[in-house]
Design brief:
globular, Amino acid permease, two-stranded antiparallel ribbon, Amino_acid_permease_CS, membrane, transmembrane transporter activity, Amino acid/polyamine transporter I, two-stranded antiparallel sheet, 66% helix, mainly alpha
Length: 527
């Protein structure tokens, strides 16, 4: 019996026809073979350890929840008011949404070919012509730090908005760095406990979050359109503001794109949930693209509603939480408080889904022996069939990333930058490697056809430009409290990964491992 092969030059998983697994393949009319879920996983060399409790809608829901336009726009809106103002908030949303659709489509094509929890780092290892272990190694570590940054930033934002809600009714309360970090710790603890003991409830909450977000956007936009007596004119969307301290308006405008870019992180969540998704070769790519497309439309409506409801611009921009100030100024404390609860709920849903995805990436990376103490982190709970230890590692690392918030006024922007740059570099590497293969890439059932290469080119260019931008200074003058520590965090991770790679890892890690032939790994299934 021949062992399963992944093929060279980025070819998707293939299964020998004479094996028991191979006979379960379903042939498509176009000549390609659509593998069922377990067959696909076995062809990639992995036994089934996780329960497939996610259907197509659930897979879409996790990325839609992590993108979370309410959480992203409300938490970063004030930053955009200073860096470009309404022009960049609105036009930037449209422009970045289009660029992210290119990134998502390119990723979706890869996800259809390699639907595993390892997602990006697994695909990088299989798409590389040479040095597969190195490509996989660095993609995995960038994905790890980006995922941790997303989990941390969402919890940190929720902590800030919870305090804004308290201030709404108790004006004497003042949020501080230590109080925000402490509340963040509590949120991360509760989300980790939920992912440990109530996994079925987590899946149900992620499904419900889609309707919470859809209803929340409708309620907020409707309230801002119908209740205020006055609105800014349509021409206000072209108003430009530069309060960053930098003299270059172009630089300020580019910094303002961080608002939209931060919102559009985490759609690899669908990819990481592939091993828990039914019909993953089709449901996963559709989940990625669908989540981005729906978020683009919902986010544009929300952004326009907020921008055209701004009253006194200076007072709003200087408020502790500008987006909350817009609600209270336009709608009054009562309605604003209700809508703020919707926002906080969205952030908590977002953080819960973030941690779920984060743990799956850790589980898969450890399964291939790429993390310290790998055996511990890819352990699966016999009760819930979930990677419980990986959940707690995600929570602990996320909290560590928020510690500078004890003294730094720009901690949130820095954490966001860690999230955006780490994630998008991890997105970009497999797309770049797929681009190098051109026609040698063997797609899955969901693919872009002749548009695959052009779409990948645009995606790589955007990722390169945005990654450079978001490690640059965010404000001036540079001080201990305003310094953007994102490049330090990213360089530290890359440096450790590099030293570790050349010291020991390159001799023992050659990329994603195979546990045997398809029939052999099928016999190892735990479920």
């Amino acid at each position: 019996m021949r062992p399963a092969t992944f093929g060279s030059l980025g070819k998707g998983p293939t299964v020998p026809e004479h094996t028991a697994v191979g006979r379960r393949n379903r042939h498509r009319g176009d000549g390609t073979v659509a593998l069922d879920d377990d067959t696909t996983l076995h062809a990639m060399g992995y036994p089934r350890k996780l329960t497939r409790r996610f259907r197509a809608f659930d897979n879409f829901a996790i990325s839609f929840t992590i993108i979370n336009v309410i959480s992203g726009i409300f938490s970063a809106f004030g930053y955009g008011m200073a860096a470009g103002g309404p022009l960049i908030l609105v036009a930037g949303w449209i422009a970045v949404s289009v660029m992210v659709l290119f990134v998502g489509a390119a990723m979706a094509e890869i996800a259809s070919a390699y639907p595993t929890s390892g997602a990006l780092y697994f695909a990088a290892g299989k798409l590389a012509r040479r040095h597969r272990g190195a490509w996989s190694w660095f993609t995995g570590w960038l994905n790890f730090v980006g995922q941790v940054g997303g989990t941390a930033a969402t919890a940190y934002a929720a902590a800030a908005f919870l305090q804004a809600f308290v201030t709404l009714y108790h004006p004497a309360y003042r949020a501080t760095g230590p109080s925000t970090v402490a509340i963040t710790a509590v949120i991360l603890l509760l989300q980790a406990l939920a992912n440990t003991y109530t996994v079925d409830l987590v899946a149900l909450l992620i499904r419900f979050s889609v309707w919470w977000l859809a209803g929340g956007v409708t309620l907020i936009v409707g309230s801002l359109l119908l209740l205020p007596d006055t609105h800014r004119p349509l021409a206000f969307s072209a108003h430009f503001v530069n309060d960053t301290g930098f003299t270059s308006g172009v630089y300020a405008a580019l910094l303002g794109l961080l608002v939209t870019s931060w919102t559009y992180t985490g759609f690899d969540g669908s990819f990481h949930m592939s091993e828990e998704t039914v019909r993953s070769t089709v449901s996963t790519p559709r989940g990625i693209v669908g989540a981005i497309g729906c978020s683009a439309l919902a986010g544009l409506a929300l952004m326009l509603a907020l921008v055209h409801s701004i009253g006194d611009y200076s007072a709003t921009a200087s408020a502790t939480v500008p987006s909350v100030h817009i609600l209270t100024d336009a709608l009054g404390t009562g309605v604003a408080g209700l809508l703020l609860l919707v926002v906080i709920g969205s952030m908590l849903f977002c953080g819960l889904a973030n941690m779920t995805s984060n743990a799956r990436q850790i589980f898969a990376f450890a399964r291939d022996g790429a993390m310290p103490g790998s055996r511990r982190w890819h352990t699966v709970s016999m009760r819930t069939r979930t990677p419980v230890n990986a959940v707690w590692l995600a929570a602990g690392c996320s909290f560590a990333l928020t510690v500078p918030g004890l003294w730094s006024h720009t901690a949130f922007a820095a954490i966001v930058s860690v999230n955006v740059v780490g994630m998008y570099l991890a997105y970009g590497i497999p797309i770049f490697l797929r681009l190098r293969l051109k026609d040698d890439f063997r797609p899955g059932p969901w693919h872009l056809g002749r548009w695959g290469v052009p779409v990948a080119r645009i995606a790589v260019v955007w990722i390169g430009l945005s990654s450079v931008l978001f490690v640059l200074p965010h404000s001036t003058p540079l001080t201990v409290t305003t310094f953007n520590y994102a490049p330090i965090a990213l360089v530290a991770v890359v440096l450790v990964a590099t030293v570790w790679w050349f010291a020991t890892a390159r001799r023992r890690f050659s990329g994603p491992v195979s546990y045997g032939s398809p029939d052999e790994v099928a016999a190892m299934d735990l479920i």
